[in-house]
Design goal:
six-stranded mixed sheet, alpha+beta, 257 residues, Deoxyribonuclease I, Chain A, globular
């Protein structure tokens, strides 16, 4: 397992050609997709199968949804984030095991909708993610938790004026929950190799955000200790945002030695 990419595609059926082009060009071992916005039977698995990729999908009608495209065989270990209540019907997590590595693909709640209830759900989800990560560390597992975290970890991770100081993506409680993951001993891949660069992974469709480079960095890969030691490079594929009908997010790749 050498190259793993995460990408919030904001509708896989709309972005099917973009995803196929990316697979042909970049050939990741795993491609983690979020916000696929379709049920499993609607997922364009045949397109990706023709390129040598099989699909593991947790879908939901019109909203959310996650999938992992893989070339080598994988074992699906979870189709829902452990520790979340059974009442949680959102399709936000899928996890696979391959080559002695666990890879969790996550689409963390935004937290800005539905008032206090929506924000409480975001924090509940993050607490469950931390509990799962802690359990894997206690079990001495090697793992990666990657996807759309919907959090700017620091003020350096968003352009001035791109977001309100009261937005759920930057609220102190959100950042504290993200830091609680890091304090388990995890490494945030991009900042490990690019600690001071101005880097974004999301540009809103509104207000000319792309043209003004008014972006956010909210797509992350967190690595367990032994996997962090193998990290050799990270790439934010910014050119994807310049395409016709792009997602508002771009892919983020990590490579392991």
């Amino acid at each position: 397992m050498r190259k793993i990419t995460t990408w919030n595609v904001n509708s896989v059926r709309t972005r099917e050609t973009h995803v196929a082009d990316f697979l042909e060009r970049e050939q990741p071992d795993l491609l983690l997709l979020q916000e696929i916005k379709c049920e499993e039977h609607q997922f364009p698995a045949l397109t990706f199968s023709n390129l040598g990729y099989q699909s593991a999908v947790v879908g939901q009608k019109s909203y959310n949804g996650v999938a992992i495209l893989h070339r080598a065989p994988v074992e699906v270990t979870h189709r829902k984030l452990p520790s979340m209540t059974e009442a949680d019907s959102h399709a936000r997590y899928i996890e696979v095991r391959t080559d002695n590595l666990t890879v969790g693909n996550l689409y963390l709640p935004n937290g800005n909708s539905n008032g206090d209830v929506g924000y409480a759900y975001k924090l509940e989800w993050m607490a469950a993610l931390r509990a799962h990560a802690a359990a894997m560390i206690d079990a001495d597992q090697d793992f990666i938790l990657a996807g759309d975290y919907n959090i700017c970890p620091t003020d350096a991770d968003y352009a001035k004026g791109a977001i309100s100081s009261t937005d759920a993506l930057v609220r102190p409680e959100s950042r504290a929950a993200f830091n609680a993951l890091i304090w388990l001993g995890l490494t945030e891949a991009v900042r490990a190799l690019h600690p001071a660069e101005t880097l974004y992974t999301f540009w809103d469709y509104q207000a000319g955000a792309w043209d003004r480079n008014s972006g956010l960095r909210i797509d992350h890969a967190l690595l367990s200790p032994r996997i962090a030691e193998r990290l050799t490079s990270t790439t934010i594929h910014k050119s994807e945002r310049a395409k016709t009908q792009p997602s508002d997010h771009v892919p983020v790749s990590i490579e392991l030695g």
